[in-house]
Specification:
The structure is a homodimer of 347-residue chains. Chain A has two domains: 139 residues, NAD(P)-binding Rossmann-like Domain (Rossmann fold); 148 residues, Dihydrodipicolinate Reductase, domain 2, CATH 3.30.360.10. Chain A has eight helices and 14 strands. Chain A has a six-stranded parallel beta sheet with strand order 5-2-1-6-7-8, sandwiched between helices. In chain A, strands 10-9-11-14-13-12 form a six-stranded mixed beta sheet. In chain A, helix 3 links the parallel strand 7 and strand 8. The radius of gyration of chain A is 20 Å and the shape is globular. The mean pLDDT of chain A is 96. Chains A and B meet through strand 9, helix 5, strand 11, strand 13 and strand 14 of A and strand 9, helix 5, strand 11, strand 13 and strand 14 of B. The complex binds NADP nicotinamide-adenine-dinucleotide phosphate (2 copies). The site of one NADP nicotinamide-adenine-dinucleotide phosphate has 29 residues of chain B, from helix 1, helix 2, helix 5 and helix 8.
Chain lengths: 347, 347
């Protein structure tokens, strides 16, 4: 029974508890039997006062404005970058360790950026900043695969195109996709609905996620390079990406072309990836034997398929990865960070 | 007035006249005022006898089975690869010149594979085989852009991920996407509708188009390599692709990363691409200034955006291209081949 009367179990707070990531974090706490001594659900004034059930017990949602973190051991922040920028330092100052799902502190040198399957060793002690950052949702599955490739073949460069789901923009993204699709089904010439996404995502693909930077790349594309370098501890790693939103409700996909230092044997590569923790390789011979967002299966695993070495360059190969962006890309990774901290006695 | 009483204008036949490509070919003949002396619409027994209007005149659809091409100067085939394999040789034997939209003859050495903006010079005389092949719908926009890049900077390699629309699979693809989306909107757990696509394309992306080859690539991916080499006359060109179907009704998109022999100046690249015939570069500074399938604009142009040179490698750049697969990728290219043949006096 995860809510325990045990002073060694942490007191937790979920900021953004009513959002897609927060709601999934609650589900995962239930599914995985994460042990906690007390739980506080926190959101904006919009949701404050609502009752949310965790393991059959009702909890009243607190307003972040005025919330006191001095009785919180670990706070999960999933309420957007600007909320984290303002509130994470206050929570830390009040004594909480923060696991932050936003991009606010990811590149801060005093803050470890952690994917437990890759760099759990950075969780041996409480970080100097009091914050552990959770990487971007497209970066997490990629680095989990790249680690194995780097160790065996060395990565010269990776070229990645993403196929990112609406849920990456939270509940408003999911709702807008559904509503837009309904509108365009009725009137094919309708521009659709466009508030969260621009233009509407209904029956369209949008090659632009997050803000545009001076060099023409988007912030989302830059995150994939910078965060991968930091997580893997490879400051010169060469990854370049195009990040594209597609009309899928949930789960991001990526087509990654990876050129190595050494020739890659396909069978060995398949075995190396299949041996990774919580990774499923879809490699049956028939056409159809590849993961897709809706059919991949277990949402707590990274799904890989279409592994193929190019004929023109035996050092290069393609893979296709599908991962639940809300679980693998956010809530599950955050909870696995907490589990690793508990295991190491840091929490 | 395109239907002309002029013995120099060709007598044309459209095989597959009732399909997505055939219907669009009729529209383009009307829009562009293509001059012909007689027109025959041909399809299967399913549509034979139907009346189809061309420029306000009703034409009865003929059954391909038993159709006589001896009074046809040029026959456009858009009825699938197996129909072309059987019927194109018969049409040629009966004296017609064939412009074939399928993959049946594209790699035949006696058959030119033509994108008029790239290799119209191959249309100076009637080909030995009596056939001119129209390339794959993802290949056409790409080679139109690559020609300029090769000539100025030299292409070392290109890595391309596609975002291909349902219309690439004809009317049944479009209908199935719409029906599947409607089904999944009502019941999010429904597997959707899956006959043309597998699994259903509704709210999903499918990293597999056309049949799988022994090396793990699909035929669609191989076409992009082999056809580009043939059209550009660059037998060692290194292009590798992942071809993905996305829940878009019409217009394919491609994210292409291109590494050159020489460093690329972005402004010069933008100018070079913008100077190409029937290409629009979307390059305004604001976020949102990129083409998407539903918003790109003029369907008779290739739309390019997100042009950016990578920081880590100044010889490499990305671009995002959107092109109407039915027009640019099939019907318009085929008609432009015919126009070029007329201009050169071959037809
Ligand atoms: N979705 C993903 O795949 C994903 C992946 C990685 C990281 N993230 C990050 O996780 C965060 C949340 O994403 P989401 O998808 O869960 O978004 P969401 O569904 O829109 O939920 C947002 C949550 O933040 C709360 N919130 C918003 N403004 C607030 C404020 N001023 N003060 C307190 N709480 C506030 C909302 O509470 P109310 O109910 O009161 O509005 C809600 O609980 C974002 O920073 C996002 O970048 C998301
Ligand atoms: N859609 C694209 O983006 C695209 C791009 C490049 C190339 N192509 C190629 O163009 C061809 C047609 O594609 P589409 O998208 O127009 O398909 P579609 O909408 O399914 O239309 C198929 C057409 O072929 C006819 N047809 C089918 N089987 C036939 C047979 N046994 N004998 C005579 N006619 C037959 C159909 O006639 P009925 O009405 O009698 O069934 C219909 O006119 C395909 O080979 C495709 O590979 C398509």
């Amino acid at each position: 029974m995860p809510l325990v009367n045990d002073t060694t179990a942490p007191r937790i707070a979920l900021v953004g508890a009513t959002g897609v990531v927060g709601t999934t974090l609650i589900q995962l706490i239930e599914e995985r039997g994460f042990r906690y001594r007390a739980i506080d659900l926190v959101a904006s004034a919009r949701s404050a006062g609502r009752e949310v059930s965790v393991e059959g017990r009702d909890h009243r949602v607190h307003d972040l404005d005025g919330f006191d973190f001095s009785r919180t051991d670990v706070a999960f922040f999933s309420a957007g970058g600007s909320v984290s920028t303002t509130w994470v330092p206050k929570a830390v100052a009040q004594g909480a360790l923060v696991i932050d799902n936003t991009s606010a502190f990811r590149m801060d040198p005093a803050t470890p950026l952690v994917v437990p399957q890759v760099n759990a060793h950075e969780l041996e002690q409480r970080p100097a900043s009091g914050i552990i950052a959770n990487p971007n949702c497209s970066t997490i599955p990629l680095v989990r695969l790249l680690r194995a490739v780097e160790d065996r073949w060395g990565i010269r460069q990776a070229v990645v195109s993403t196929y990112q789901a609406a849920s990456g923009a939270g509940y408003s993204g999911i709702d807008e996709l559904r509503e837009g699709v309904r509108t365009v089904l009725e009137d094919p010439d309708s521009p659709g609905v466009s508030k969260t996404f621009s233009p509407s995502l209904a029956f369209d693909v949008i090659p632009s996620i997050d803000r545009r930077l001076d060099d023409g790349f988007t912030f989302e594309e830059q995150k994939m390079l910078q965060e991968s370098r930091k997580i893997l501890g490879l400051p010169h790693l060469d990854i370049t990406a195009t990040c594209v939103r597609v009309p899928v409700v949930n789960s991001h996909s990526e087509a990654a072309w990876i050129e190595c230092d050494a020739p890659v044997d396909r069978d060995e590569l398949v075995r190396a990836l299949a041996a990774l923790d919580e990774v499923t390789v879809h490699d049956r011979e028939e056409l159809g034997a590849f993961p897709t967002p809706r059919t991949a299966g277990d949402p707590n695993r990274v799904h890989v398929g279409r592994i193929r070495v190019t004929r023109t360059n035996p050092r290069a190969f393609w893979l296709w990865a599908v991962a639940d962006n809300v679980r693998i890309g956010a809530a599950l990774n955050a909870l696995q960070i907490a589990e690793a901290l508990v295991e190491r006695g840091v929490l």
